[in-house]
Specification:
alpha/beta; D-Maltodextrin-Binding Protein, domain 2; 2 domains; 38% helix; 20% strand; globular; binds glutamic acid; signal; TRAP_TAXI; TAXI family TRAP transporter solute-binding subunit
Amino acid sequence: MKRHAFSAAAFSGALLGAAMFSSPVMAQEEFITIGTGGQTGVYYVVGQSVCRLVNRLEDANIKCNAPSTGGSVANINGIKSGELDMGVVQSDVQYQAYNGTGNFEDEPYEELRAVFRVHGEPLTLLARADAGIETLDDLEGKRVNIGNPGSGQRNTMEVVMEAKGWTEDTFSLASQLDAAEQAAALADNNVDAMVYVVGHPNGSIQEATTTVDARLIPLNGEAIDGIVEEHPYYSKSVIPGGLYKGNPDDVDTFGVAATFVSDADTSEEVVYQTVKAIFDNFDRFKRLHPAFENLDPQEMVTSGLSAPLHEGAARYYREQGWIE
Ligand code: GLU
């Protein structure tokens, strides 16, 4: 594939060499890489699930892999540099990157392309039960993991901090641990609270709530209302009660959606085959994670997207009659 010309050519050269001695020349394989997130999040499962379906395609000859990454912002940067072909990113990050706002101020990424929307992702604040945190305001003076640079939660937490007039000095510690390290840090009492923009249920919150007594904290009040009113890509949401030990009640918060994105330069055929692999096998895809349970194909391709649809995706959706 064009954006991986060097490594793909070297690899297919080796394949060709092997083929000369063993079997008839095979059609050239395309290698694609999908950016995900931490291994205990949902993006990693999304990426692995998509690759599993793509790698089963008999005629397409695509080899897909989906490594763990730093999250949404790291995925945008990886797609932009050509290191990744596709990736999962939060809808707020997609909007900001495409339009050049927020952390992408004055650098609109015009070649960014939307592929489809996936599950909802509430901003999830989890605190140790012994930390004396019952509301967002109680985070002042506490040890909070505000997320690794490159993650979507860090990006969204910065929006919350700005709305509250907070800086990192508001907390006694503002740590920047990766998503997959947060649960252990909470359990080991190295932090009082962690934030994660993530689908539910997920492995990280499960890990935290089974190793330490911890509570999901509601996010509401004036600052949160303002954020939701001001930005079209944020909406109020609820983390259902009963998903995690010690958290029987629904918790109000706000959130975004996870979206699948690519670059206008990524091959139309590869993106077409990728969405075809998913939507032709949609029941199987949905069973791969409980957060996918309520997904509806037509809604996934028509709402929650800011960048234009990738041409390869649009071709498949037109064939299905989902878009004009
Ligand atoms: N929303 C997170 C991020 O953008 C990742 C969540 C996940 O891995 O499921 O970094």
